[in-house]
Amino acid sequence: MAAVTAPAAGTASAAAEGRRDRRSRRNRTRWIGVAFVAPAALYLLVFQLVPVLYGVALSLTEYSPLSRGAPRPVGLANYAALLDDPEFGQALLVTGRYVLMVLPLTVAIALGLALLANRPFRGVGAFRSALYVPHIVSLTVVSMVWLWMYSPDGLFNEWLTGLGLPEQRWLLQEDSALAAASAMRVWKALGSNMVLLLAGLQGIPRELYEAASMDGAGAWNRFRYVTLPGLRPMLTYVVAMDIVYLAQGFAEIYVLTQGGPLGSTTTVNYLIYTEAFQYNSFGSASAMAFVLFALIVSFSGLAVRGISGRKS
Amino acid sequence: MTTNHRHTPGRRAVLGGALGGALTGLSACAFTGDGSAASGGAGPSGPADHLVVWFPGTNQTEIDLVTGEIVPAFEERTGATVDVTYLDWGDMSTKLNAAFAAGTAPDVFGHGPAAVADFAVNDRLEDLGPYLELLEPADLEDMDAALPGGRVDGTQYLVPLSIQGSLIAYRAGDFREAGLDPDDPPRTWEDLLEVARRLTVRDGAGTITRSGLLLMSDAIGRQQSFAALLASAGGRQVDGTSPATAAFDSPAGATALDYLVTLFAGDPAVAADLGQNYSDLPPEQQPLVTGRASMTMSTAVRAQSMHDAHPELDLRVMQPLAFSGGEPGVLGGAGPGLMINKDSAAKELAWEFISHLLQPEVSGEYTRGIGAIPVRASSVDDPYVQGSPVMTAFVQAADAWVPNPNVPGWVQARDTLSGFLEQALNERLTPEEALAQAAPAVDEVLAKAARAGGA
Question: What's the pTM value of the predicted model, to 2 decimals?
């Protein structure tokens, strides 16, 4: 028994020791992981999460930064007021229209350019770089340049008059101002979208194209049944990010139109800026921000599900 | 595994508790502060021989002048040190609001008169009345045209550094071309419209290629144009102070708005480019310089800069106009000025800095440097004024200046009014409808601001 028991006890003890070692290693590894993650997590917590939570709290109050008093709780009154606020409703419509005017065009053109840039030809590097340049220039600077090009004495009107056509009031007319701002934004967004889609294209195995060709697929069918499905993850990302950025359109509106004419380019973000920093109403501005946030999350989610084909 | 399960929730709970506590603490800090001088703040808590000053605007000439000459002279005279920051006008309110909320607002800061009432009603400004009493009576009289624009409810909170106003500038050559005498410009708005019709040029399709008369019609500009016309028609924008109420929905208001609409949509119209903000354009792009307009409403700074850059255009400035049978009036008065933060620890030094800028020679140097209308009436004899027909015209117009109201909530009220003016200019509403609908909307904004103690 003793001869049998002793090894068993030894084995049990060794096993227990092994478990302790593994646990200790796991614990060590875990704490090292925590140490690596902590700086970024702290940054997120302090500079992202806390302001967001503070914003939520502010949206339930009436608060002017000039006031010496603390924010005055008003419950959901700021949200309720938005339901009756025609300006906010109009701004939501303008924001939606802006996204719809820019998104399909910029994605379609960027895809076309990415297909072009994916082919080997002389100067392809310069071609790709040239297309990417608008992305690395500040949106404010780009907007200033386009403001001049759209001005009554600007480049576009010079071209029109050169062709014997009448001048246009690009940013001064209700029916053309948003389209003019959108055209600038399409141009600005092309570079980054093109590069992302190009990366997506280069991730599609060439064998799939060869197999499709051998099966008799033409150019359109190769695009329809190989390229598009292969691009789906990147396309999903591009569309989702574009929705997020475009729905928060501000700098270009601030520079080009200041929300006019007749409120036709007042996006929600521009309205939030006015409410918070011109009229000092941080409470209602915060409520607007969270309604916009909820809408962006919803529409981005819908777009992701729609394009990626994921079912709930 | 079991052990892990037991420990993990425990750690999570501890972590969660710690995070929750931290968040609660942060939120509590954020919600209990009164926004007064915080320890370690930039301006208010600094030593009494150090000043933090924020100037409005990023005009390079002004920056060079203040930083290179005015501030060093003050530092040498007082032994104090001054940190000056220049803020873009667009960022001014944003940065000041954030600084006041955080308790780091500067000792001295500048802004336009339109912003004063909201700071004052929130108890953020030092009453400058007792300090002004330290000045010589002759000095006060010399600045009499400018000082009222810095008062709210009779209390002086802002000391203007210049006078600001808009008059009609015109190209003498276009007058001669149209058979008009540039030495005898119109004296009433009605005559001005007739002259504008003769100066307007159209292409074959009837599109205006040169506006006869262009008044500001961008978001802020159209309210200023309306206010100038309203003042000429004998009307007022608001009545009372706490709360103020809209007074523009009146026969004078209708006359003023009808005139403004006629310029852009009359038969025939005399102005194109409705909504364009031309007043902020550099001299080379000004409609008077490019030839897109023969007469425009222009500030002194802009008219002077165009005159200096293009003497060959022979630009001239008309005196304030009246509607037939009325008195001339024009929007103007106190320009941007300086205020003292009520929480400043160096108020005496702050006032010394402001009074340094008000000294006749420094004030003259400052307004000359930035091309503005001098704040002192005695400057009319200054060679800077005498040597410039443009500046002389603006200084001579001082009696007709009518300032914007200094009431809480004015910025939002102005924007609200401007929205309705825009609808009238675009013929969505008649002038009467626009004013009738604007008045209650403006009343609501002003009443809310008075209740809340600010905008």
Answer: 0.84
